[in-house]
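Narrative of accomplishments. A recurring question from our advisory board has been how the design workflow behaves on a single, concrete structure rather than in aggregate. To address it, we present the structure tokens for one chain from the evaluation set, followed by the sequence designed for it. No filtering or post-editing was applied between the two.
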């Protein structure tokens, strides 16, 4: 069901439209008697379409369109005018209105326009979601056993609305799992909202989650919907839930139990239908034992637990991950697509990745792309701390992978020095815009010929 906001200063018009839209289109409606009220409502309600009178005494329709454009609010707006002046309608369309109707036209046409506008709104959201899927927001890569199990769990849990708790080390992909749960659910076209409980000061977190009424606290000069309301019908990710302050934990528990939310400073409970996903890298059982996290809240959140395995436990996914990061990095920085040599890959396979898991791998790939002058990333392009790390006991290529003649891993002092030298020279070149004389001077080399010799040794080409 869609929510349509009708804005008109004449009560009879509002009521007529409300009645007809419910009867003929089956839509939910909200009404506002002026521009200011409409703008306020649009800030807190998830409106799908607006019917807007152009002639109103306070803030008129044109002003409303301008403010919406400035806010980046892309809700489709149908304007109407009673004056029969089409120049005004054309002007409104130029300001971003979806279409216009005349007050004298039959209501069926208005309902049809609303349908068109809603369809457009749906398409805009779908395109945005597809772009995300293709662009910055990759699907979970990997086919290891751990990953296959994880994907099956996501598929199963996406279908139900209960809370999910995602656990996993830093950088292991918790956020990606949450998004995937939303994307595969029947809420996929509804909002997906994330609140990072660690990123907000204690006094703001409650208003962020639950919203506030005007005057609820100093500085609250307008009412604002919280994340629970914004995500109603969709999914809310409470990231870093382990960092939630005690008072907010108590409120969150109540919201989950009652399925409604009361804004700070408000008295009216607002019904919400928000699927809650919580994520943390912390051991919440230990936090409960230490009195830092409420046990009753944990029991509400951990109805279903998804554990994202650390990268070291699914190293057979590493080649596929490297491949996808190579494509994305080269594409993003518009450099020619590079490959990775088996020897360099072997070095990555022997590393532990426990510091930041997949995120660390992604950053490493980016560094290697820039360290490598040619088309193939070699062992010398692998960051020195990875080359220098102790080989893991069970390290090695995954079963079935081609065996390669890898160089010594931890590296001799000579090798490590060479790798460090290469990185130092490369960084200096980057800093000086690859100006040879300047870089040679910065590095204290005798002349530019000495630098060219070093660059040649390290296969660094201008
Ligand atoms: N299986 C995967 N396939 C592709 N990319 C992945 C995968 N897992 C993680 N990533 C990427 O790794 C990075 C870190 O992932 P994400 O932000 O989901 O981790 P996190 O567990 O939420 O980390 P933190 O605990 O630091 O919040 C992101 O860029 C994400 O796109
Ligand atoms: Mg995260």
């Amino acid at each position: 069901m869609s929510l349509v906001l009708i804005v008109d200063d004449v009560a009879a018009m509002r009521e007529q439209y409300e009645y007809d839209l419910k009867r003929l289109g089956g839509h939910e409606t909200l009404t506002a008697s002026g521009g200011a009220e409409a703008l306020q409502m649009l800030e807190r309600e998830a409106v799908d379409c607006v019917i807007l009178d152009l002639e109103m005494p306070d803030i008129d329709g044109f002003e409303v369109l301008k403010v919406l454009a400035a806010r980046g609010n892309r809700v489709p707006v149908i304007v109407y005018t009673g004056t029969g002046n089409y120049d005004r309608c054309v002007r409104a369309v130029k300001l971003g209105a979806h279409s216009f109707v005349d007050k004298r036209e039959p209501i069926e046409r208005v309902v049809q326009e609303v349908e068109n506008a809603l369809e457009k709104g749906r398409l805009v959201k779908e395109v945005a979601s597809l772009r995300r899927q293709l662009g910055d927001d990759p699907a979970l890569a990997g086919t290891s056993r751990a990953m296959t199990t994880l994907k099956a769990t996501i598929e199963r849990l996406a279908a139900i609305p209960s809370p999910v708790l995602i656990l996993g080390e830093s950088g292991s992909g918790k956020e990606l799992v949450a998004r995937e749960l939303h994307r595969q659910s029947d809420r996929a076209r509804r909002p997906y909202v994330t609140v990072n409980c660690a990123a907000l000061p204690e006094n703001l977190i409650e208003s962020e989650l639950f919203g506030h009424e005007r005057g609820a606290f100093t500085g609250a000069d307008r009412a604002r919907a919280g994340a629970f309301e914004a995500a109603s019908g969709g999914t809310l990710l409470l990231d870093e839930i382990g960092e939630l302050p005690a008072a907010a934990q108590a409120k969150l528990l109540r919201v989950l139990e009652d399925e409604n939310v009361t804004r700070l400073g408000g008295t009216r409970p607002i019904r919400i239908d928000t699927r809650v996903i919580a994520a943390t890298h912390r051991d919440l059982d230990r936090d409960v034992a230490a009195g830092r996290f409420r046990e009753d809240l944990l029991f509400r959140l951990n109805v279903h637990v998804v554990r994202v395995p650390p990268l070291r436990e699914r190293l057979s996914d590493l080649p596929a991950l490297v491949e996808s990061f190579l494509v994305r990095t080269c594409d993003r920085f518009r450099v020619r697509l590079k490959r990775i040599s088996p020897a360099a890959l072997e070095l990555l396979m022997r590393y532990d990745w426990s510091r930041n898991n997949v995120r660390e791998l992604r950053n490493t790939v980016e560094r290697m792309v820039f360290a490598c002058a040619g088309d193939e990333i070699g062992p010398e392009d692998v960051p020195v701390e990875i080359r220098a790390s102790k080989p893991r006991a069970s390290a090695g290529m995954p079963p079935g992978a081609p065996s390669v003649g890898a160089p010594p891993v931890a590296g001799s002092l000579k090798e490590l020095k060479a790798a460090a030298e290469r990185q130092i020279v490369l960084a200096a070149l980057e800093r000086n815009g690859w100006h040879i004389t300047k870089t040679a001077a910065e590095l204290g080399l005798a002349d530019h010929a000495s630098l060219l010799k070093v660059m040649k040794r390290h296969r660094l080409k201008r």
